[in-house]
Amino acid sequence: MPPVTAEAKERKKQYQKRYWKKHYARNRASFARRNRKYYESHRTNVIIRAKKNYERDPEARFFYMIDYKFGCSREQYLTLLQQQNGVCAICSKSPDGRFKRLAVDHDHKTGCVRGLLCSRCNRAIGLLGDDPGMLAQATRYLVESAPCDIPVKIL
């Protein structure tokens, strides 16, 4: 039997990934019932295992999620973080408070990762629909708006 090439292994891996994704989608309710039944009968062990995994690598879930959502590995995230000197690409502030990590900013149309942003800047550009035109209008509004002539009662 001839040796299996790396290309053949990768094709098989991709095939299996597509197969299980379709299979899971078709049988979602069945998988959910089976998982719920297992969890109910092994609840204590599941919780202990989850705690051990967290103690071993507290950031594993975060890096799993960015890999799953954006295809950005731990190394790529850390490289970006180092390139940005550990600060937000827009406001140059380091993450603090409730949000201890910078969010992965990505283009919603292409899926390409643009950089790392603090949660405030990430929400701001998201609320403006990732539209540079809207951002320019907002900037123009802030710069050109006249001083307020209407007194406002601040509570």
Overview of the structural elements:
It is a single chain. The protein has a two-stranded antiparallel sheet. It has two domains: 12-56, no CATH class; 73-140, 3-Layer(aba) Sandwich (His-Me finger endonuclease fold), CATH 3.40.1800.10. Helix content is 59%, strand content 6%. With 155 residues, the protein is mostly helical. The protein has helices at 6-26, 28-41, 43-56, 60-70, 74-83, 119-127, 132-144; strands at residues 103-106, 113-117. The termini are far apart. The model has no long low-confidence stretch (mean pLDDT 88).
CATH superfamily of the largest domain: His-Me finger endonucleases
Percent of residues in helical segments?
Answer: 55-70%
Please, what is the average pLDDT? Answer: 88
Strand content: 5-15%
If classified by CATH, what would the architecture of the largest domain be?
3-Layer(aba) Sandwich
CATH structural fold name of the largest domain: His-Me finger endonuclease fold
Q: Which structural class matches the secondary elements?
A: mainly alpha
**Major sheet attributes:** 2 strands, antiparallel
| Uncertain regions spanning at least 5 consecutive residues | none
Can you tell me the overall shape? Answer: elongated
How many structural domains in the coordinates? 2
